[in-house]
Write a structure and sequence with these properties.
It is a single chain. The protein is of the alpha+beta class. It has 2 domains: 1-56, 2,3-Dihydroxybiphenyl 1,2-Dioxygenase, domain 1 (Roll), CATH 3.10.180.10; 63-129, Roll (2,3-Dihydroxybiphenyl 1,2-Dioxygenase, domain 1). It is built from 2 helices and 9 strands, in the order βαββββαββββ. The protein has helices at residues 16-26, 70-82, and strands at residues 10-13, 30-35, 38-43, 46-52, 62-67, 95-98, 101-104, 109-115, 121-125. The chain has a 5-stranded mixed sheet with strand order 5-9-8-7-6, covered by helices on one side. The longest helix has 13 residues, at 70-82. It comes from Knoellia aerolata DSM 18566.
Length: 129
Amino acid sequence: MIGDHTPVPTLGVRDIGSAREFYEGTLGLTPGRDMPGGVEYRAGSGGIFVYESEFAGTNKATAMMFELPEDAFDTQVADLRAKGVAFQTYDLPETQWDDGVATMMDGGFRSVWFEDPDGNIFNLGTGMG
């Protein structure tokens, strides 16, 4: 069954060289195999495939989420800020915002959203597991 296999998010980018700078330098992902038109990255027990596409950044919804343990969240947010990543805010019900960090479900879930250079939207969040 499909549900027995690990999905691999695929993200379109305009320029693979610029994307590599962001994914490797800013996010700290380690590249795996170079593949036709893109590169594979390992992340946790899965992976991400980043490839060149004329439709890069056209998705206006969250493309990918990284679930973090609560004790790692603040460090990761600070690291991204130090690398120049700007966090987005949205009009979400029952959400408190503090300097780009959303707190939801009475403090049970904290989250930030940001974009890669091509406009793909990422989320770092806690409390999902």
